[in-house]
Write a structure and sequence with these properties.
With about 40 residues, the chain is of the alpha+beta class. The chain contains two helices and two strands; from the N terminus they run αββα. A two-stranded antiparallel sheet has the order 1-2. The longest helix has 10 residues. The N and C termini lie far apart (about 30 Å).
Length: about 40
């Protein structure tokens, strides 16, 4: 839904979120965000 995406700060695709926070869609950034969760 466009309105929901706009409220979440999405302005391009792909947009990746980890635990509700936007993350660069690079492998390294996603991995670092996941590792920061401690899981």
């Amino acid at each position: 839904d466009f309105a929901m995406a706009s409220r979440a700060g999405v302005n391009a695709t792909p947009t990746v979120f980890v635990n509700g926070r936007p993350v660069s869609p690079s492998y390294q950034a996603v991995r670092a965000a996941l590792e920061a969760l401690g899981n």
